[in-house]
Amino acid sequence: YYWAPKYSARNVACPGCTKPCGKLFVIKEGKYAGTEVDGPEYETLYSLGGCPEISSIEAVAKANELCDLLGLDTISAGVTVAWAMEAAERGLLKPEDLDGIQLAFGDEDAFLAVLERMGRREGKVGELLTDGSKAASERLGKGGEFAIHIKGMELPAYDIRGAKGVALAFAVSFRGGDHLTAGNYGTEFGGSWWRFEAVDRHSIVNKGFEVKFHEDLMALYDVLGICKFSRHMFFLEGLPELVRAQTGLELSAGELLTVGERVYNLARAFNVREGFSRKQDHLPKRVMEEPIPEGPSAGDRVSYEELQAMLDDYYEARGWNRAGVPLKAKLVSLDLEEIAEETGAGRA
């Protein structure tokens, strides 16, 4: 990037980490002088740059800083404002709905103004957008067909129409359209990882087990506090030694992976208790109906029928019924007897 040497002051790392993968981005002059932010990183460049079509890296960095100060997730914030831009472009939102702001793709001043109001829940536009694109489309009563979310969480920077396994992982993630719940995008786009070989991202075959395994492993990473950027360094077979060194516990790789599986089933059981089912394991309308227009994935989309087939495969791999509810037998096998009685299904 042309701007990396210009604005990168130094490498930065999370506390205690020996791999400083971040950059301190500092703007010393011009319109956005005084802006300092850790980033902007990959997802933020997509959400605060690509989605709203903001070409100025300085404006993207300022938006990144605003999100940090206001407690906004950069992915959800950028995708939500981009939804509002499209709604305005379609005539569904008028300037009077946007506090007089002429919101349009590529207008960095309007983008930053709306972003700040959203973060502070100020004015009509702030109240409309502050809870994300799903809530905004419901409040407006329009625009739901182009709200890019799953379970109310806006999607990150991967075109899942061209990666069927990633699409499935996003659909079933217990917290919504999230790339880190399973983290299988590297396996899908690279075609191989660890013991996975010849992975065909265009195919729906065997995606159930693929997603389940990645989810269980990433849940274990979360439990152990392992950075998910270390997936090519800390493989499953090396984790027993790490756990033994830290805790003295003698656990096999299989026993540790079961910890991740237990975590994931607990999260699913929580959602089931709150009313979630197969219906909420959905994909945005555009993902299912609008094919990728060009490039190596031209023509790809995830049809409704493909999604349903992958859900069946995934639920079976998980030991859940066809509604996506964990079977009592599965929960009991994971030593979750009380959860089995509270939310478990007795039949497939």
Please name the CATH topology of the largest domain: Aldehyde Ferredoxin Oxidoreductase Protein, subunit A, domain 3
CATH class assignment of the largest domain: Mainly Alpha
Number of helices: 16
Number of domains: 2
> Which blocks of ≥5 consecutive residues have pLDDT under 50?
none
* CA distance, first residue to last residue: 52 Å
Task: Profile the largest sheet.
Answer: 3 strands, antiparallel
CATH architecture designation of the largest domain:
Orthogonal Bundle
Defining traits:
single chain, 348 residues, mainly alpha, Aldehyde Ferredoxin Oxidoreductase Protein, subunit A, domain 2, Aldehyde Ferredoxin Oxidoreductase Protein, subunit A, domain 3, 2 domains, three-stranded antiparallel β-sheet, two-stranded antiparallel sheet, 5 strands
Please characterize this protein's 3D structure.
Strands 1-2-3 form a 3-stranded antiparallel beta sheet. The protein has a two-stranded antiparallel sheet with strand order 4-5. The radius of gyration is 22 Å and the shape is globular. Helix 3 packs parallel to helix 5 (108-120), helix 10 (207-224) crosses helix 12 (253-273) and helix 10 crosses helix 14. The protein has helices at 4-7, 42-50, 57-70, 74-89, 108-120, 123-129, 133-140, 164-172, 185-190, 207-224, 239-247, 253-273, 285-289, 304-318, 328-333, 337-343; strands spanning 8-12, 22-26, 36-38, 149-150, 153-154. It folds into 2 domains: 8-147, Orthogonal Bundle (Aldehyde Ferredoxin Oxidoreductase Protein, subunit A, domain 2); 159-343, Aldehyde Ferredoxin Oxidoreductase Protein, subunit A, domain 3 (Orthogonal Bundle). The protein is mainly alpha-helical.
